[in-house]
Specification:
- Strand 6 (about 155) and strand 7 (about 160-165) form a beta hairpin.
- By secondary structure, the chain is of the alpha/beta class.
- It has helices at about 1-5, 20-25, 40-50, 65-80, 100-110, 120-125, 140-145, 145-150, 190, 205-220, 230-245, 265-285, 290-300, 305-320, 325-335, and strands at about 55-60, 85, 100, 115, 130-135, 155, 160-165, 170-175, 195-200.
- The strands form three sheets. Strands 2-5-8-1-9 form a five-stranded parallel beta sheet.
- It starts with a helix and ends with a helix.
């Protein structure tokens, strides 16, 4: 629908104009549903970065929708979000450059037919966006394979004495985790090739409740869960617990609390509520109750069985127990723990 009505200038190889891409991501308040809930300026900077042919690095703590945003950016701009390199400690350089079909290589020798293109190489040839997830998890020498690709927009193939020139529209969207910065930090040469956009955690509790509610409803439909009331009160309770433990202070600012080792991100809140809805639908009375979310919260908070358990017990006794309208939740969490 956006493509049909979009008469604004489009960068080479883009299916939509930058304005339409931003509308697709943030919604229009009517027919276009928002894919990302957050500051508009962040999305505009990300889209403008890709429009200037500069690579984009989405940086943030876990659960700030880095992958979600990169996927929808690629879908809106290129019509395809599947050209993906998943970064891990075992990712080889072939995942960035190219590999070989060794049966053909041995029988025919080096040739284009024996070459196996990587997602990056395919994106260059087709003029599309490619996504590199968890860039800092990849070994440093594999990361540096991107330097020539990003600076020269070429991929040398020395075995064939050839090179692949990137078609217009090619670019790279990478994501990296703030907490993984020390795993394989980016070299200064590679960092200069990216424009970094930091994705924040939701600014307010209401914004986070809105994100969780919308995403839980979408997941419920996609998983074909039985209809269950959204349970806004329980969603607000999960978000409150996570935000207080993340920030180290209660919502009213009166009580300081210890923070656990986990991130307690918005994504984890969505997972806890979705799991609770499944419990309520299949093993309860169809109404989301504190007992349905208690186990998920305890599991999310207690990542370290020793230190996190102490943090959780102190929070439960010092904060949750004293809230009159949280008594059922307090008993459910105490039983689950």
């Amino acid at each position: 629908m956006l493509a049909k009505s979009d008469d604004r200038p489009r960068p080479p190889g883009w299916r939509l104009s930058p304005w339409a891409v931003t509308t697709y991501l943030l919604g229009d308040g009517d027919q276009i549903t928002p894919k990302y809930v957050g500051p508009r300026r962040i999305v505009e900077v990300a889209v403008a970065t890709l429009a200037t042919d500069r690579a984009l690095l989405l940086l943030g703590v876990p659960g700030t929708a880095k992958t979600w945003l990169s996927e929808h950016l690629a879908a809106a701009i290129s019509g395809d979000s599947t050209l993906l390199v998943q970064g891990t400690a075992g990712t080889a350089e072939e995942a960035i450059r190219y590999g070989w079909n060794y049966a053909r290589l041995l029988s025919e020798g080096p040739s284009r037919q024996a070459l196996t293109p990587s997602p990056v190489m395919r994106a260059m040839a087709e003029g599309r966006l490619t996504r590199v997830e968890e860039l800092t998890r990849m070994p440093s020498d594999v990361q540096d394979a991107l330097i020539t690709i990003l600076s020269e927009k070429t991929l040398p193939i020395p075995e064939l004495n050839e090179e692949v020139q990137a078609a217009k529209g090619f670019n790279v969207i990478a994501t990296a985790n703030d907490r993984d910065r020390g795993v394989n930090d980016l070299s200064s040469a590679l960092r200069r090739r990216f424009n970094t956009v930091v994705l924040p955690v939701p600014a307010s509790a209401e914004e986070e409740v809105e994100i969780v509610s919308r995403r839980v409803a979408q997941l419920g439909r996609s998983l074909e869960l039985p209809d269950t009331p959204a349970g806004l009160e329980e969603i607000r309770r999960v978000v409150t617990v996570f935000r207080e433990l993340r920030s180290g202070v209660t919502a009213d600012g009166r009580t300081k609390v210890k923070s656990p080792s986990g991130t307690l991100s918005t994504a984890e809140a969505i997972s806890v509520v979705t799991s609770g809805i499944a419990l309520a639908a299949h093993f309860g009375d169809g109404v989301l109750r504190p007992s349905d979310i208690a186990g998920g919260i305890v599991g999310a908070v207690i990542q370290d069985p020793v230190s996190d358990r102490v943090v959780w017990q102190e929070y439960l006794e010092a904060v949750v127990r004293d809230r009159e309208d949280w008594r059922e939740f307090y008993r459910a969490c105490r039983d689950a723990g």
